[in-house]
Design goal:
Layout: H1 14-43, E1 60-63, E2 66-68, H2 70-86, H3 89-97, H4 100-135, E3 144-145, E4 156-157, H5 158-197
Antiparallel strand pairs: 1-2, 3-4
Helix pairs in contact: 1-2, 2-5, 4-5
């Protein structure tokens, strides 16, 4: 009987294995660079003295026929950089190996950030709606918040600020879910070790 040789498929190549292992790291760095490039490009070409307005009042082409505000592109890329970064092998290994007290501290701090940014989300929705109602402006992208003057000498564009705090809010929720998943994996590993020890 003649034997049949079985060759390795292209998916088993060393390059494919390395790519598969590090795909989340590559995506995290890629989206991080994209976010940084967008924020720098918009910052270096300011259109006024209002903080963040240059990121809101223009649209840039991110794909053929698809336009987006620089701040929207930045917040999406920031979230993807953060999310994929948490699932990179190095970060995942770090979270799996830290002590339980550190993991609990990260969990509590993530809830604190969620609480603070959640309030800011509601605050910006209220100030945005109230400003539109009072000022009667037809363009919601030019609403600004001049307060507090002592801390912030220049007004802040409300759309800019709202998108930033929304990104922070969802990043904190993502981290909360991530820590819970990591904690469950750790407990399952500990249970397996105890079962094998017995």
């Amino acid at each position: 009987m003649r034997g049949r040789s079985v060759g390795k498929s292209s998916t088993d190549s060393p390059h494919h294995s390395v790519l598969r292992v590090h795909i989340f790291s590559i995506l995290s760095v890629g989206f991080g660079v994209a976010a940084l490039a967008m924020i720098l490009a918009a910052t270096l070409t300011p259109t006024g003295q209002i903080s963040g307005q240059s990121l809101v009042t223009v649209e840039v082409q991110v794909l053929p026929g698809f336009y987006m505000k620089p701040i929207t592109f930045f917040t999406y890329c920031l979230f993807l950089c953060f999310g994929f970064g948490l699932y990179s092998p190095k970060t995942r290994g770090l979270f799996l190996n830290v002590g339980p007290d550190v993991l609990r501290a990260v969990y509590v701090m993530a809830w604190l950030v969620a609480m603070a940014s959640g309030f800011e989300v509601v605050y910006h929705i209220v100030i945005w709606s109230a400003s539109l109602a009072v000022q009667g402006l037809s363009n919601p992208d030019i609403i600004v918040n001049p307060f507090p003057v002592s801390v912030n000498p220049t007004p802040v564009n409300v759309v800019f600020a709202a998108k930033i705090v929304v990104a922070i809010f969802f990043m904190s929720l993502f981290l909360i879910d991530y820590v819970r998943r990591i904690d469950r994996i750790r407990r399952e590993r500990e249970l397996d070790l105890r079962l094998h020890a017995n």
